[in-house]
Design brief:
Blueprint lengths: L4 E2 L11 E5 L5 E2 L1 E2 L12 E5 L7 H11 L5 H4 L28 E3 L1 H7 L4 E5 L9 H14 L4 E5 L3 H13 L2 E7 L5 H9 L3 E5 L3 H14 L2 E3 L5 H17 L7 E5 L4 H16 L7 E7 L4 H9 L24 H11 L3 E4 L1 H12 L7 H15 L9 E5 L7 H9 L29 H14 L1 H4 L2
Parallel strand pairs: 7-15, 8-9, 8-11, 9-10, 12-13, 12-15, 13-14
Antiparallel strand pairs: 1-4, 2-3, 2-5, 6-7
Helix pairs in contact: 4-5, 4-8, 5-6, 8-9, 9-11, 12-13
The structure holds ligand F0G.
Length: 463
Amino acid sequence: MPPSVTSAKDSAPGQATFRFRCIGCGSVNATAAQDFRCSDCGNLLEITDSSWNSRNPTALKTLWRERRILNEAIDLSGVWRFREFLPAPQSEQEIVTLREGNTPLYDLPQSSRVTGVPRLYAKHQGLNPTGSFKDAGMTVAATFARQAGYRWVACASTGNTSASMAAYAARGGMRSLVLVPEGKISWSKLSQALDYGALTCQLRTDFDGCLRLLQELVRQAPVYQLNSINPFRLEGQKTLAFELLEQLDWEPPDHIIVPGGNLGNSSAIGKALLEMRDVGLIPRLPKLSVIQAEGANALVRTVRETQGKRLVSMQPETRATAIRIGNPASWEKVVKVLQATGGACEQVSELEIAQAKAEIGAEGIGCEPASAVTLAGLKKLLQQGFVKPQETVVLVLTGSLLKDPDYTMEFHRGDLFKGTPLEQESAKLNSFRHPPVVLDATLDAVIKTLELAEKSDPARSNE
Ligand code: F0G
């Protein structure tokens, strides 16, 4: 029998006070089964800890700031720095970390001008060690996997989870099994898993098919699943919100806008916001809004067609492959977050995503397509009057520009929508394209090209 995952039972006395709580029936347990589902009703679990509510918020803010100058691995991690709100491992020396977190909060001057929102920021999770937000959750879940004595960890992925898991498994001395949809993830992400030594299986199905198979696998084999169904992952991902609020001197923004795929990240951020509010770290809740691609809009349809009561799953299709998911696991958690924070749920088109990605690139920041749905979504929420120009808005950029170079190259070369029904309409994005120019290696050729560029786009040089 594979080991079960334990909180208090195996832990040093007085250390692990966390429990697993079912989000459906509310039952609370010290242990969780391999599939991280409630043994009574089958719903997802979340981690709770009664000690979190008894903390002094002022003392916490000071403590977290002081840790920023310390050199212990646990303090250098932008995740474990906030460990008062994380499940405690048996020993702090045992954490598996790559110094994740500590990601910048950028202003976006050009996008501010375009959208008319002066206080617009991007929390760039793509600057994590493996280039995506997954690292924040993986450090916590990999730590508990190793503590529970697992030799193998596994995930289904659209690419980023697998890259992150493979890295943390390698770091923690564990082996990793990756299940990805064949042909539907970027080479850049796949190559990370290979380099970090994962056993990588490209399955002839989509992400949802991979996840279904993984769920069956963990019931039969002693592998520890590291998808965001694993509540330890979401605990780590919570720290994005703690770090963000610290960067804003604990003044909550009016809106936080997140891309939605399997819906783990939005659940985690929402959980963090509620916990911060409950303990008095922030005086009010930002509205957390989730944006999906039109072709992978299960949450949008669930909210619109059933008022969030029943999941409307679908066959997903989008070039933002990270969020090409039709049957999101954490939909119920997110519906609760949308309700609790008063956030919205919106969808954006492939052209809107491509334009927003180019605009974020033009800020000198860049991101992968799935992250760009946030800026595209903001424009829609502004049009609808849900976001007001004078409000403070934070976009969560989830992955690095380098995660999907094919998309970027195809966009700038003008090939992204070639042969698709969007080909003609995509011409309106031509002004955002910066294709490479092939020239003879002469000074004259380069100077002529320079002059042409200056003439065709004089505004850029005056900025
Ligand atoms: N952005 C990026 C870059 C992602 O990789 C993902 C999910 C999301 C957004 C959506 O986050 O699933 O928590 O709602 N990627 C997963 C993966 C599914 O396997 O890498 P979510």
